[in-house]
Design goal:
heterotrimer, A mainly alpha (about 200), B mainly alpha (about 675), C alpha/beta (about 300), A: about 200 residues, mainly alpha, Four Helix Bundle (Hemerythrin (Met), subunit A), about 85% helix, disordered N terminus, B: about 675 residues, Cytochrome C Oxidase, Chain A, 3 domains, two-stranded antiparallel ribbon, 22 helices, about 65% helix
Chain lengths: ~200, ~675, ~300
């Protein structure tokens, strides 16, 4: 027979995981609105350059690879966490964090280039929707990065208790979710600009 | 200065009669409450027992209090709208400027939908749903307080324009673009609208996540999905809709904010922006929102008609299927709000037919309830009266609704007073009557004593008569070609008399509301005579009646086991059989079976052994985060950028601090439980 | 019946009588003549069909509504706990027949209504030109803050807050806006259509009768919303031609400057008539929002 305490924790855990999934779905709907907006306003360039002239596939491809790798390292961190290997968990999360920040840096570089060339979000509905979609994802990555920092601090100070690993599970779900959203952004914004 | 205060200057302080009146009345109200609390030394009590409480029952009551205050505000707006429309005809221009009039009806709509109906329904779900599924709490008590406090933050923000800025949105309750854009609405009014909706909407979204998990994960053993009470089913349906469509609202409002404050062009006419996109997005939230309000009311009616007909719900499966169908279909009909936008015949016809199809499950519900009354033993207590009143109004509103859903008819009545009459029939006759029905039904459960029956009946008759006198003229005005939102019209049109009659109706409704207030006061005063000691005054069917009134903090000392759909009814039947076989003595006491007897009988023993109960601790984190969110919204309205950043950091820090906290629960020992259970049999309102 | 109940009944009857009397008195008021029921008193072919649709759909719904009301009151009386001695109380009643009827009745009604929706929506599509032997007249509509500008491209005249057209002639409206969204609505002639900036929507209607009809916007569009009304006058062909001639003599012309003056927000704008209109003004108004150098 199991200890009652453990039962309660596991029960709570399944609730939080389900709740987190429901939250992710709501976030997905928010992104869906942004995708729909982008699709509706893509051609409304108001005489300015459109997607095919503005976006470079190389930069976006680099960002994609970095984010995919970060998802992979996040998975390694979780595996380490389940093995109760504290140091490895922290190291892999640090790598994930570094990749996330690199991604953000590349994205900010792309934005600043566009703005420097005068393609700001005020110029047309198309640019408004582009900036809204991509920067919302970027904002999520930033929040995820902050979360990783907090998580590392928690692992460092408290070890891999069930309480902490439950939180890590949600963090990794969040990170993979952002990866999936990015795949859509890459396809719909960058790839489809070139076809 | 502008770095410190943004756009906020001294000129924004109240200087018009209505802003001064609003500010002064809010200050007096606040002062009165503060004096009361100081005099009776209740500050600490308020903070520890109520404001920081994680008990969904207390949160539910707090929802009722805030929603009632907002109802008074919304009703005042309604009265002002009526007075202007009755007076402002021909050469007379009434007592309000066009701009002020438009602000009032915008506020009226937003308040009634977001802060009154949503508030009352959240309160009911909070209080009743966990009891009905035999749970002790909701999935995340912290999230629950946060939801409530975000709702409060939104409510404060929507009233704050009296004090700062003196201007609300004058754009209609959905602030259709491009009118709500910065070009046509340069003031802070639309920003107040955006942020009060955004913040309370965030609260609703979190509540939606919380309740879905609660219902799916925390039901008592034996309660399968198809044994859930209808109110739980409808709460689930409604919350599924909340999490599906509130993200759309949130994002739409964000995009509108970007348009207004950062020069983007999503919904502007120029620069390639597309105002029709806004209309589509806001209604793809807005129409499901209507059902979010209606579906839980359907659940209340199902509970009430079954209890007071003393009969099993007829065709429970039909009701479940109907609730699910309405949930699914409600996201497929949004375009019927703008058939007149020139979408083309095929598109219009599709959405028209979908609107018709949604009337099928709705009609099925009505007939199912009627079939439940068939061969019943109907007790016409107040909740049942509200149900009958609801069927009368709702059927009428349904006919008007199907008419509006037919594009060919909609072209003629769209945006007319016919439409206004229709949705008030649904909102008052459907949702609000449902709320009253639920409150009168569950009042003894919540307080431990009965509501005065006679005053309740007077209130009901005032409401229903007032409702028809108020809104029938609006249907007629619609046929006369009167559009909504007019602050002035020509005398030759012959509309004034109808507006005056509608105003009489409003006064009758006010009388009804006053009677309800009186009813509660009288009931509190006479509570000693009308105590509910059984916990089951109506011969109820569902689990909330199986515990004492009001329920202890942990709801159930022993989590009941469910064998049947009407779980408590089943227990009582079982108890009667068990008792008559085993113990003649209890029967001779000739009283209603006590819940503990029923539960005891379930265990086939009269002796109950209690166990330790783990409950969530109180927390103030919800209040802190909401306060930060409130300042975030306020700072955005006035472009006080340092405060935007500071409050965002504040909210994040609160979250991080909380994430380190593992000690969020406490234990009520078995001994304490036993003590509470023995006292609780005759307790009163939780003071 | 107790004395108390008698008093109650008397009060009830008195209130009822008062209400009925009040309604009758209201109906007798001069403003209450049928002509004021714009939607129910159509003077155009489209509005007439729309009214017919209203009657048909209500009639159909009565098949579900009347039983609902009847059963509600019948059951309320018959199965009341006070009155239950002679009735069978059956607390666990289930019946497949009733269960099926509950779904069938509303479904059938809605199924028929769905058919009507499909047909009528195509028939009454505002974009569909009206079939007629008479050559249609085109009127371009610009919703401004807060007045209606009408341009007759063929006649090369323009008016504000007033239109005249011959009866029994199909009228093709093209609508746009130079400001917030408005709806164009002449209740006695046809339903509404939105007028939106940067795009052109269409509405077709035809008056069967002469007369002056009220027109308005029913979409909130700012401060001057209530005063944004116009009159649509349907006349004979001859009268219409004479009217066009009289407008041609107006001293005002609508060039770009004049338009920019007119476009400024104003409330309760008086009628105005222009004998000439700058070429393709209607298109230029739309283009303002679509071409970068013309944008405001």
């Amino acid at each position: 027979m199991q200890k009652p305490d453990l039962q309660i924790t596991q029960h709570n855990d399944s609730k939080t995981i389900l709740g987190f999934w429901v939250y992710l779905m709501t976030d997905l709907i928010m992104f869906a609105v942004l995708f729909a907006t982008y699709a509706a306003l893509k051609t409304s360039t108001f005489g300015g350059p459109g997607p095919s002239e503005l976006f470079s596939l190389n930069g976006a491809l680099a960002e994609t690879l970095i984010l995919l790798t970060s998802s992979f390292t996040c998975g390694l961190a979780m595996l380490a966490a389940h093995r109760q290997n504290k140091n490895q968990t922290i190291i892999w999360f640090l790598v994930t964090l570094a990749l996330g920040l690199t991604f953000l840096g590349l994205e900010l570089k792309e934005f600043s280039q566009l703005i420097a060339e005068g393609h700001t979000w005020q110029k047309s509905a198309f640019l408004s929707s582009f900036f809204a979609l991509v920067s919302t994802h970027g904002l999520h990555i930033a929040i995820g990065s902050l979360w990783i920092v907090v998580a590392i601090k928690q692992i460092y100070s408290r070890g891999l208790t069930p309480f902490i690993t439950s939180k890590l599970t949600r963090l990794s779900l969040f990170w993979h979710f952002l990866d999936i959203v990015w795949i859509f952004i890459f396809t719909i914004v960058y790839l489809m600009a070139k076809v | 200065m502008s770095l410190l205060f943004g756009k906020l200057t001294l000129a924004a302080l109240p200087h018009e009669w209505f802003t001064i009146a609003g500010t002064v009345s809010m200050m007096l109200g606040g002062l009165g409450v503060a004096l009361f609390l100081t005099y009776y030394k209740r500050w600490k009590w308020l903070w520890t027992e109520w404001l920081t409480s994680t008990d969904p029952k207390r949160i539910g009551i707090m929802y009722f209090v805030v929603a009632s205050l907002m109802l008074a505000r919304g009703a005042l707006d309604a009265g002002m709208i009526w007075l202007q429309q009755a007076l402002s005809v021909g050469s007379s221009h009434g007592y309000l400027s066009a701009d002020h009039f438009q602000q009032i009806f915008t506020a009226h709509g937003a308040i009634m939908v977001f802060f009154v109906t949503m508030g009352f329904l959240s309160g009911l779900i909070n209080y009743i749903m966990p009891l009905q599924i035999g749970a002790r709490d909701v999935a995340s008590p912290l999230l629950n307080t946060l939801s409530f406090w975000l709702y409060v933050a939104g409510a404060v923000l929507i009233n704050l324009f009296f004090v700062f800025g003196g201007e609300f949105a004058a754009t209609g309750w959905l602030s259709i673009a491009p009118l709500s854009g910065i070009e046509f609405s340069p003031g802070v009014g639309v920003d107040y609208w955006i942020w009060s909706l955004q913040i309370s909407g965030l609260g609703s979204l979190l509540a939606g996540v919380n309740f879905i998990v609660t219902i799916l994960k925390m039901r008592a053993p034996g309660m399968t999905l198809m044994r859930m009470p209808m109110f739980v089913w409808t709460s689930l349906s409604s919350m599924v809709l909340v999490v599906s469509v509130f993200p759309i609202l949130a994002m739409t409002l964000i995009l509108l904010t970007l348009d207004r404050q950062f020069g983007t062009h999503f919904f502007t006419s120029g620069f390639g922006g597309n105002p029709m996109l806004y209309t589509n997005l806001i209604w793809s939230w807005g129409h499901p929102e209507v059902y979010i309000l209606m579906i839980p009311a359907f659940g209340v009616y199902s509970e009430v008609v079954s209890t007071f007909s003393q009969k099993k719900l007829f065709s429970y499966k039909s009701l479940v299927v109907a609730a699910i169908l309405i949930t699914l279909l409600s996201v497929l009909v949004w375009l019927h709000h703008f058939f007149t936008m020139g979408a083309g015949a095929n598109v219009n016809a599709f959405f028209g037919i979908m609107t018709g199809v949604i009337a099928i499950p709705t009609g099925v519900q009505v007939f199912t309830w009627l079939a439940t009354m068939y061969k019943g033993k109907i007790n016409f207590k107040q909740p049942m009266l509200w149900f009958v009143g609801f069927i009368c109004t709702f059927t009428l509103g349904g006919v008007a609704g199907v008419m509006l859903g037919i594009p060919g008819i909609d072209f003629q009545v769209h945006n007319s007073l016919f439409l206004v009459a229709h949705f008030h029939t649904m909102a008052i006759g459907g949702a609000l009557f449902g709320i009253f029905c639920g409150i009168t039904y569950w009042f003894p459960k919540i307080t431990g004593f009965m509501l005065n029956e006679r005053l309740g009946k007077y209130a009901f008759w005032s409401w229903i008569v007032g409702f028809f006198v108020s809104f029938m003229p609006l249907y007629i005005l619609g046929f006369m070609g009167a559009p909504r939102r007019l602050d002035h019209y020509d005398a030759s049109l012959g509309w004034q008399w109808l507006f005056i009659v509608a105003g009489f109706g409003f006064l009758i409704i006010c009388l009804g509301a006053a009677l309800q207030v009186l009813q509660i006061i009288v009931s509190v005063i006479q509570r000693k005579e009308s105590m509910d000691v059984t916990g089951d005054p109506w011969n109820g069917r569902t689990l909330e009646w199986a515990t004492s009134s009001p329920p202890p903090v942990y709801n159930f000392a022993i989590i009941p086991e469910v064998r049947d759909r009407d779980a408590f009814w089943d227990m009582k039947q079982y108890a009667v059989i068990a008792r008559s076989a085993a113990d003649e003595a209890i029967l001779s006491e000739s009283r209603l079976p006590r819940p503990s007897d029923a539960l005891g009988a379930r265990n086939d023993t009269q002796k109950i052994t209690y166990k330790d109960i783990v409950m969530p601790k109180n927390t103030a984190i919800g209040i802190y985060i909401s306060a930060c969110t409130f300042f975030f919204g306020f700072a955005f309205v006035w472009h006080i950028w340092w405060l935007v950043i500071a409050s965002a950091i504040g909210a994040i820090v609160c979250l991080i601090v909380r994430s380190f906290d593992e000690e969020t629960e406490y234990v009520i020992t078995a001994v304490e439980v036993e003590k509470i259970e023995s006292i609780n049999k005759s307790s009163t309102f939780p003071m | 019946m107790t004395r108390r109940n008698k008093i109650k009944l008397a009060i009830f009857i008195a209130v009822d009588a008062l209400l009925v009397g009040f309604s009758l008195w209201m109906m007798a008021r001069p403003e209450f003549h049928f002509g004021n029921f714009a939607v129910l008193n159509p003077k155009g072919i489209i509005a007439l069909k729309e009214r017919g649709l209203m009657f048909t759909s209500v009639l159909l719904m009565l098949f579900a509504v009347v039983p609902a009301y009847f059963l509600l009151f019948y059951f309320s009386k018959k199965y009341s706990a006070k009155n239950n001695s002679q009735n069978k109380y059956s607390p666990n009643l289930e019946s497949n027949l009733i269960g099926a009827l509950i779904w069938v009745v509303p479904s059938v009604v809605i199924f028929i209504i769905a058919g009507i929706i499909w047909k009528s929506t195509h028939d009454l599509d505002p974009y569909k030109p009206i079939e007629s032997n008479i050559r249609p007249l085109t009127i371009q509509v610009v919703a401004l803050r807060w007045k209606w500008l009408f341009i007759y491209p063929e006649q090369n005249i323009a008016t504000v807050n007033f239109i005249e057209f011959p009866k029994d002639t199909p009228i093709n409206f093209e609508l746009t806006s130079d400001g917030p969204m408005s709806t164009f609505w002449i209740p006695q002639l046809s339903g509404q259509t939105y007028a939106m900036a940067a795009m052109s929507t269409k509405l077709h209607l035809m008056a069967n009768d002469t007369g002056e009809f009220n027109g308005l916007s029913s979409e909130i569009n700012g401060q001057g919303y209530s005063g944004m009304r116009f009159v649509a006058k349907a006349t004979s062909q001859n009268d219409f031609e004479a009217w066009v001639e009289s407008i041609k003599k107006s001293p005002d012309i609508l060039n770009e400057d004049q338009y920019n003056e007119l476009e400024k927000p104003s409330e309760n704008n008086p009628r105005a008539y222009y004998s000439m209109v700058e070429e393709s003004l209607y298109n230029n108004i739309m283009m303002k929002y679509m071409i970068p150098d013309k944008a405001k």
